[in-house]
Specification:
It contains 17 helices and no strands. It has about 475 residues and is mainly α. The two termini are about 20 Å apart.
Amino acid sequence: MANQGLEKSKSEPAVSRKQWLKIMRNAVYLLVGNVGVRALTAIATILVARYLGAENYGALAVALAIANLAGYCTDLGLTQTFIREGSMPRADIRSLTGSALWMRLLFSVIVTAVVVIAVPFIYPEIAMQRIIFWATLPAVWGAALQGVGSAYFQLSEKMQYTALIKGSAALLNCLALLASIYWQAELIYFAAAYGFSQLLGGVLSFALILGRFSLGSWQRGLLGEISYFTLAGMLTMALPQVGTLILQKVSVLQEVGYFAAAYRIPGLLYMIPGTVAGAFYPLLFRQGHLDIYNHANIAAVQLKVMTILSVTLALPFLLYPEFFMGLLFGSSWRTGSPVAALQILSCLVVLQSLHFPLGDALTTRGMQRRRTYCLLVGLLSAIALQNTLGAGYGAAGGAAAVVGTELIIVLCLSFSLPGSLEMLKQNINNLLLAVVIGLTFMAARHQGLGPAIGLWLPSLLYLAAAIWFSGLARQLWPYKGVGNK
């Protein structure tokens, strides 16, 4: 059935001009919130790594990994079920928002209790406990409140407010970290800066949705199949943290610091194609309820756009990793493990841009169970790979384990999604073009091509060629037949 929808796209565009304008406008809003301000936060984090050194930054990275996991536990799939229920015809959005708020607050109480009880058993060192508590406990409540507002505005496709919520929290975090460096603060103050900036972002989110929710009725639909959304969301949040947490057990903190610093860069790069996923998400859910044929077409377009963006961004870091590590972290980071880790992790951006469109297509077609199973396979693979590669090769091994895990997830999702073969076939030219350009300029670099040209020319050539040969230019341009769908 999905293949029929894809064939239909040959005669008419999958996404109308009006839909494209809305998607691009919302993507720009998300870009500002997720990338623009977070770029400042990434710069602040790099300065923190240089200030603290690899070992102390490794300890902070462990605390932030736990804070991120705990913050997700205030969601447990509610964002997904909220958008699913809210995208249905005649949905009661005010009541849904109030129900989601109550559930998030309840989850926050439970998560706070679990963190306070569990952390002393896992980390007996008092200093490490204090760092984790200051980073995690305020962040838990901030994440709960931010999540309600972000989901509400994503559903209503007013993503300028989602950008405002996320961007404000990131900007506060950036300013707090820079202030801690300026005052030459101890490590624990950096942890507290992260935690309380998340809490203040939550307060802003709550202020924005005041008057937009009702606490008078309970929407039981939010709990429909939530267990699969919960498990999938926990796995999605856990996977980026597995490398740091396991590497800390099987290697030295210096290697953890190298890995965490290198992992920051592809994490930031993915935010750009990731904004496309966020902008497409409500439309995919809506088409999943109404028109499965057009759903397949839209999912294929999303996959194509995200792949082109991810390769464009990844090429400079694949070709010149030592340039970026030296520029961002200092001359001592220009060789060895940090450089190898970044070069390997640059491939992660491309794999994630295959992973998330395939996964979102499953979710928005009511096949969340299959996505959950694929993520579970990924988590088990990550644990096994990190324990072997991370233990043997440090930061570079940890990076290879992350990329290997992502590849396994992509393959699993491809086998799980009906019509995925047709989607991937439409995208194969973009991937082959990336391989050809990457190998060509890698050879040119060995012949003496420097960063002055190599940092921008491969990406520019790829972007232009991919947009033209993929047919995306014709879909983006307002040609006859697109206008009033």
